[in-house]
Design brief:
126 residues, 7-stranded mixed beta sheet, globular, dioxygenase, VOC_core
Length: 126
Amino acid sequence: MEQVVGIGGVFFKSRDPKALAAWYREHLGVPVEPEQTYGVFTSAAAGEQAVWSAFPADTSYFGSGPAPFMVNYRVRNLDAMLAQLRAAGAPVDDRVEDYGYGRFGWATDPEGNRFELWEPRSPGQG
């Protein structure tokens, strides 16, 4: 059985993403560069990254459900995980996006929360 191996990121809606990102940078030390709405945490020991990001309140990136957030889960085998979810009857997006840093897919849980799955690209791959 495929399973998630970590959190790749946490994304949430915001009325003012830049101002909220600046607040998190100033008060919690989230590594957000000025004028950006996201930050990347890097684990030196594991060499893994996790993204924190504020999105506009009207974003459609989280799907049509009511949730003001979306979690990105890290997986080893995106295709196997998506097939497993489809076999279980979960709504799974048909598209998969491929970037230099990994592949992404999306599905929705039984309560309508959309989530993102990320298969990071291995060093030297791509």
